[in-house]
Structure formats: C-alpha cells, structure tokens
Amino acid sequence: MNDPNTVRILAIETSCDETSAAVVVNGRDVRSNIISSQIDLHTIYGGVVPEIASRKHIEKINQVIAEALKKAEMTLDDIDAIGVTYGPGLVGALLVGVAEAKAISYALKKPLIGVHHIEGHICANYIENKDLEPPFLCLIVSGGHTHLVNVLDYGKYEILGRTMDDAAGEAFDKVARAIGLGYPGGPKIEKISREGNPKAIAFPRAHVGGESYHFSFSGMKSAVLNYLNACHMKGTEIVPADVAASFQQAVIDVLAGNAIKALEETRMKKFAIAGGVSANATLRNAIQKACEDRGVSFYCPSPVLCTDNAAMIGAAAYYNYLAGVRSGLDLNAVPNLKLGEVR
Ligand code: KG4
Ligand code: ZN
After folding, report:
1. pLDDT, tens digit, 9 for 90 and up, residues 133-160
2. Does domain 8-124+306-322 bear CATH number 1.10.455.10?
3. Residue 182: its pLDDT value, please?
4. pLDDT value at position 42?
5. Residues sharing a CB contact under 8 Å with residue 18, sequence separation 6 or more, in sequence order
6. β-strand partners of 153
7. What pLDDT sits at residue 343?
8. What is residue 24's DSSP assignment?
9. φ, ψ dihedrals at 242, nearest 5°
10. Is 264 exposed, middle or buried (0-12, 13-18, 19+ CB in 10 A)?
C-alpha cells in the first residue's frame, strides 16, 4: 500500500522532438528523467519534420518509460497518477504521448492528468528550488513560445506579455540557418557568439505597443537576413560570429528589457526563467544581474530542465493532482492550447 502523503507521478512528454518519461515524487523530487532526443534525425532537414517526430516517438515511448521506471526503482504498480503533455505542440507528436498515457491510466485504473506544456516549463523551476512558491514572475522562452507570466498561484497564471510573431527560439533557429550553422540554432548561436562582438552590428530592438509587455522578433530576424543580403550584394565579408553575437544581444536586450519593466511595475521580488532559450548563459547572466541589482531573487532551471523533458511535466501534474484536476479517457491532443485554458 502506497503512503497516502506521497504522490508518485509517471510523466510523459512528446510535444516536439524529445521523447521523455520521468518519475516525480511530490512534484519536486525527480527519481528519473529519461530524454531521448531526435535532434540528429532532424538536423539533416534543418528543422523538426513532424511526420518523422511522430514515428520516432512511437518507436521510443515504451523504451523510455521502462527506463524511467527502472531508474526510479519502481514498477507501474507503485505509480499513483500519470501526467502527460496534451498541448501545445505538434499534433501527431502529442498524440503519441496522450495515447500512451491513456492506455496506462485505463489498464492500471490510475488517474490521468493532462498538462499544458508551458505550465510544465514554468514548473521546472520548482524541481531544484525547493523553497520557490508562487507568486513570482516567469519569462518562458522556447522554440514555440515567448511569454511573460505572473504566476499568481499553483495553476493560476496571468499572461502579462507574449510574442506577436516569432518565438525567441524560432528566431534563433532561423538566424542560425541563415548564417549556415544548422539546427537547432540556439545552442549553435550561443557557442559561436563567444568569439563574436555583440556590438558589431546594430540590429533593431522592437518595442511593442507602449504599455504592453509584448514581444516581437520577426523584424529582428528580417534585419539579420537583410544585412546578410546586403553583404552578399556589396561583396562585403560576413563574420558569422559577429552576426550571431549581435543578434543574440538584441534578443537578450528585448527579453531583459521587458523583464525589468515588469519587475519595476509589479514590484515582485521573485523572477524565474524557463524554456529552451533560457539555457542560454548570456541570457541567464543578464537577467540574473538585473534581478540582483534590484534585490530580486532569481531562479532558473539547470539547462537540461530548460529544454523539453518529462520531469517538468511531472512537477506540473503534481500541483494539478493536488487541485483535483483529472482528465478523462477522452483527453485529446490540442496543438494550439492556450495557457490557463482547460479542454
Ligand atoms: O523548450 P524547448 O526545448 O522546446 C519548445 O518548447 O519549443 O526549446 C527549444 C528552443 C529551440 O528554438 C532552441 O534553438 C532553443 O530553445 N535553445 C536555445 C539554447 N538551447 C536551446 N536558444 C538559445 N541558446 C541556447 N543555449
Ligand atoms: Zn518546450
């Protein structure tokens, strides 16, 4: 008989190109977090190919779950609930995780909890920061999303700002492709930027609509493409490290600018970052410094918990479990699920 005060969640994440399963106890104690990345498969195409992602998830999902249980030294009988990402993401990719989670939930007669992927990214911060409790501000920067959120309570989110066009990670990926670095662009831009001058090229910093905390990155991306075209036409030498460093700095200035504005206006004393782009050390350092200068506590997950993983889904599923959230066997993948929306 399981201890009633201990909730062991098997979490599954398949929203994009990582097949991941984790066992998380009481939301913050990660017993295993197995991530099978498909990056090598997609690299040759310069981006994620949805059809390939779904097929690979099908091949890997059972193996990843078995490994997660083994590493946690548990069997399915020890598990109290199953948490799974049901949106947003690639529909075919999400469906693999959702179908698997439903099958396990049905077979074991254990509760099923559908989790919002962005809520998972936010909750990644709870795993290594045992003292972190809402309210806090969180900047979520990933390949599909750029959100500035006021985390009012567990499961309660007020979106202060979001991108009006490209997500920050998407802009990193597109610029990396344009300067011939390949996929995924974020880590490659970060690496080459170390040899570049962030002040070499003055790319624009878009500030959207006066009072809002919204973001825009497509103009910045176009400015890089225009710069590269102009260099080609004039026969001017392109220094990829300078282009990358200048672009990275422009993105960071915009992200940090909104973060600072929100901190000053809300007077919140805790600030967290999350999502794949938050693995970027220059971004982490810039926001950490801005927080320290203002006496604000700064939180960020380890890089492996910034990019897609199932442990963060297990953390989010736990707080939903405590709030009584239960999904039915009619749970479906919702590719454009909005944060705070339950379907
Ligand atoms: O959160 P994530 O793994 O997947 C989504 O939910 O989208 O984020 C992936 C994104 C990609 O666009 C990738 O280029 C970017 O995060 N990324 C980075 C870094 N590591 C990953 N961007 C900048 N610097 C990094 N070190
Ligand atoms: Zn993600």
Report:
1. 999 999 999 999 999 999 999 999 999 9
2. no
3. 87
4. 81
5. 35, 36, 37, 38, 307, 308, 309
6. 156
7. 67
8. E
9. -70, -40
10. exposed
Q: How many CB atoms lie within 10 A of CB 107?
A: 9
Residues in the chain with pLDDT values less than 70: 1-2, 209-210, 343
For ligand 1, the distance from its centroid to the CA atom of residue 179, given in whole angstroms, is 17
Structure token pair of residue 9:
């969640």
Closest CA to 261 of 205, 220, 316, 218: 205
**pTM to 2 decimal places:** 0.95
Pocket of ligand 1 (CB under 6 A): 16, 142-144, 169, 172-173, 184-187, 190, 275-277, 279-280, 307-308
Query: Can you tell me the distance from the alpha carbon of 209 to that of 50, in angstroms, rounded to the nearest whole number?
Result: 34
Q: Which residue lies with its CA nearest to atom 22 of ligand 1?
A: 186
H or E element, residue 35: strand 29-37
Sheet of strand 18-25: strand arrangement: 29-37, 18-25, 8-13, 81-87, 112-116
Q: Which residue is listed with tokens 């997660």?
A: 68
Based on C-alpha coordinates, what's the Rg of the chain? 20
Looking at ligand 1, which residue's alpha carbon is closest to its atom 14? 186
Residue whose token pair is 């399981």: 2
Neighbours of 61 (CB within 10 A): 21
Enter the tokens of residue 281. Answer: 């050390």
Where does the chain hold its CATH 3.30.420.40 domain(s)? 8-124+306-322, 133-303
Unique residue bearing structure tokens 């693995």 = 279
pLDDT of residue 1: 59
pLDDT in tens, 156-198: 999 999 999 999 999 999 999 999 998 889 999 999 999 999 9
C-beta separation of 167 from 141 below 8 A:
yes
Q: CA 161 to CA 146: how far, in whole Å?
A: 8
CATH fold, domain 133-303, is Nucleotidyltransferase; domain 5 (3.30.420)
How many A from CA of 169 to the centre of ligand 1?
A: 5
> Kindly report the CA angle at 270 between 268 and 275, in degrees rounded to 5?
120
Those residues whose beta carbon sits under 5 angstroms from the ion ligand 2 are 142, 308
Report which DSSP code applies to 234. Answer: H
Per-residue pLDDT at 163: 95
